[in-house]
Amino acid sequence: MNIGISCYPTLGGSGAVAAELGKALAARGHQVHFIVSDIPFRLGEFYQNIYIHQAETSSYPVLRTPPYDFALAAKMADIAVTYDLDVLHVHYALPFAVCAFLAKRMVAPRPLPVVTTLHGTDVTVLAQDRALFNVIRLGILESDVVTAVSRSLIAQTRELFQVDRDIHCVYNFVDPAVFHPVRRGKLREQVAPNGEKVLLHVSNFRKVKRIPDILEVFARVARQLPAVLLLAGEGPEWNRAREYARTLGIEQKVHFLGRQDEVASLFSLADLFLLPSEKESFGLVALEAMASGVPVVGSTAGGIPEVVAHGETGYLAEVGDVEQMAQYALAILQDASLHARMSSASRHCAVQRFHVNEKVAEYESLYRRAIAQH
Ligand code: GMT
């Protein structure tokens, strides 16, 4: 198939899913056309069958803001005709499903089947903004096929937008050949030279990630055993997190790694992954940790319980219950046989339930369904 993909290129789970999906589709022989404002992260190098089309716009003195969304819609229409796209898969209702809706009208009567994947933020955060509510709803209703990354997100979407259309659950996925447990080597010795336990968190440091909770949990763990905390990523809460680590007196044990594009080797360094989010429609990073054989301690928010099996691949507590999370973390870190059991259950679960090949096949069949509707 000739497949168009639009997504946010910035650091974040939806961009990662879109980029990995594009690579996997290209490897299966499809022609994949990214229609984006910038090259998505995780897509830095050349891949056969992948084309990048950047939508650009200029500022005009009379217009207060550059008309980017319209430029993107026009680019979608142009690429659809030029490369004879069979389907356009957009990641996020806003603005992409709405741009796709416009593009569809521009190329009519030529069909342009649109598949929209909801990742979370557009539904759980943006939908609260009444000014955007109807435009997001339009994007959802006008797509030929809609998918969401967890059952929890489907339920939220139905409730918030009062839509009763089909929404298919396609979970985030992982390539177990990329994210896998490795034998501990030099890197681990550098990070934990005295045999400390290594705790890890990776995110875009948005408020919903509850970075202070991570520091609180870690501070409690570090009081009981030698440990270091690796924090990878950057975002709005980064400065405050550094300050809070100082306030808690743990700054020597917390390593702020900043933006890391190649995270697979980081995961395999860790003993435990922390994800105490307030909102999380799936938690791709938790899955990547599990595939690397790393159990997760996190919150019960959103779709996290659909990924992390409480008591098997980690433990989950109510949002904000840092005391309970710290106890869970210590239980895993202080019991080598429990850790080994959870580590292998995590890997097993990631491979069995969230394998890239299985999820890409699910998307392919949904593409065919969208095409058949025209
Ligand atoms: O987590 C973020 O802040 C980034 C966000 C995004 O929109 O890129 O991630 C969302 O999509 C990911 C891929 O489907 C999910 O794994 C994340 O759970 C989801 N984030 C939230 O719901 C907060």
Can you offer a commentary on this structure?
The protein has 374 residues and is an alpha/beta fold. The protein folds into two domains: 2-173 and 355-372, Glycogen Phosphorylase B (Rossmann fold, 3-Layer(aba) Sandwich), CATH 3.40.50.2000; 186-353, Glycogen Phosphorylase B (Rossmann fold). The chain has 15 helices and 13 strands. The strands form two sheets. It has a seven-stranded parallel beta sheet with strand order 3-2-1-4-5-6-7, sandwiched between helices. The radius of gyration is 21 Å and the shape is globular. The mean pLDDT is 94.
Supply the CATH superfamily name of the largest domain: Glycogen Phosphorylase B
Structural class: alpha/beta
Neighbour order of strands in the largest sheet: 3-2-1-4-5-6-7
Low-confidence runs of at least 5 consecutive residues: none
**What is the CATH fold-level name of the largest domain?**
Rossmann fold
What is the name of the CATH class of the largest domain? Alpha Beta
Q: How many strand segments?
A: 13
Task: Work out the radius of gyration.
Answer: 21 Å
Encode the helix/strand succession as letters.
EHEEHEHEHHEHEHEHEHEHEHEHEHHH
Per CATH, the architecture of the largest domain is: 3-Layer(aba) Sandwich
Tally of separate domains:
2
- Which ions and ligands are bound to the chains? ligand GMT
Please bin the fraction of helical residues.
40-55%
| Mean pLDDT over the full residue set | 94
Share of residues in strands = 15-25%
Organism: Alicyclobacillus cycloheptanicus
Pfam family, one: Glyco_transf_4
Protein name: N-acetyl-alpha-D-glucosaminyl L-malate synthase BshA
